[in-house]
Amino acid sequence: MTEQMNMPKLRFDEFETRWNPVKLGDITSYLKGFAFKSNDYLDSGGLDSRLIRVSDLSSDSVKVDNKKVFLPTELVDRSIRYKLKNGDVLITTVGSKPELRESAVGRAIYINEAHGVLNQNLLIMRPNNENTSKFIFSQLNTPRYIDHVTNIQRGNANQSNITVADLFEYRVSTTTLPEQQKIASFLSKVDEKIALLSEKEDKLTEYKRGVMQQLFNSKWQEQDGQLTFMPPTLRFKAGDGSEFPDWEEREFDDIFNFSTGKNIKQNEASPEFDTPCVRYGELYHMYGEVITTVVNSTNLEHSELTFSNGNEILLPSAGEDPLDIGSASALTLSDVAIGRTINVLRPKGSIDYCPVYVSFYINEKLRKKISTLARGASISNVYNSDLRGLSLPLPSIKEQYVIKSFLLKIEDKLKLTNSELEKAKEWKRGLLQQMFV
After folding, report:
1. CB distance 46 to 58 below 8 Å
2. Which superfamily is assigned to 248-394 in CATH?
3. What is the Cα Rg of the chain in Å?
4. Which of 161, 64, 46, 147 has the alpha carbon at shortest distance from 105?
5. Which residue, 52, 248, 303, 371, shows the most beta carbons closer than 10 Å to its own?
């Protein structure tokens, strides 16, 4: 590729023709989806009878793991003009604000494998014979396109909409068909790499979910009038090959001392400050089961703060979604200031306890139960007093650490794959900015 004035910064060497700016509506046609009646919806059906709704789309593809809706075969046969074709570009005409990519109005989806019938609030865009679909679509994944949608959208944060007339005023660049095809082929290979990494991440996530289900399905069963420990499906052995002892069922109140953090306001937290801190909103968006690095710091005096000693369990005590309140994080760092609206669980002195094991267990087995303890309408709250009566099985401390090590290895693989995926997406974004005028 070469760099030229008034041309894309990146270009294949064999092409020199000047690119031409045109309105999207001048080189494409479109078809709006149909408002099928909900009375016709079916819970099952063939691939080609699936109804594709706005809610079936992610930021960049048609979802495969959500609850699908299908149409009767005879209705699909009568609605052939609304069936998807390979190379179609779907565009949402309703949705959230453009910055919320997963549900944004105006987001474009390229169809590699066409299955299904188009519902209302979506349109199919198809280029004329002088242009390729992938080439045009790639120009709908740039910051400039998002800016255009931001300028034309109407409504509020929950329900924005755009008109076709405004959408098709967007200006794209065209070049010769051979150059378009070569660019499209190159970008398809980039997309294949991203798709493979995404698939790898999905498989690792599913593997982790299955492993945790097998690790944490132990129970106590009454036999001959006595409670007998029934071990989990997946269980480890000691280094010498011997069995670990039976697990003990312990109430939270027997294991933990309970406290809360202290207030750290938004303007009192910044990565530039000196004292590492964790604020409750960060538990939702920045941290998972284990906190090994902290992203924020505070400038408050130490006397105004509550600090970790490196073996705490943190649970948010408030949130809009009750399920969020049940998400636990093991804080494995000492001297970290803990913010308000966080329930802090610390082990009592005589307890053999691995915070990482407990965090994984809470997230897998107790999250839904904790969410049922939540009180409040628009904002749900769970207090330390609500948690005291909960219980969990405690293996021996050695087995806890074996479980921790095993799960963290999976986590490390997930983080590495996610990092590779994000780098590939960022690389693609950089390419798009340089390959199009």
Report:
1. no
2. DNA methylase specificity domains (3.90.220.20)
3. 27
4. 161
5. 52
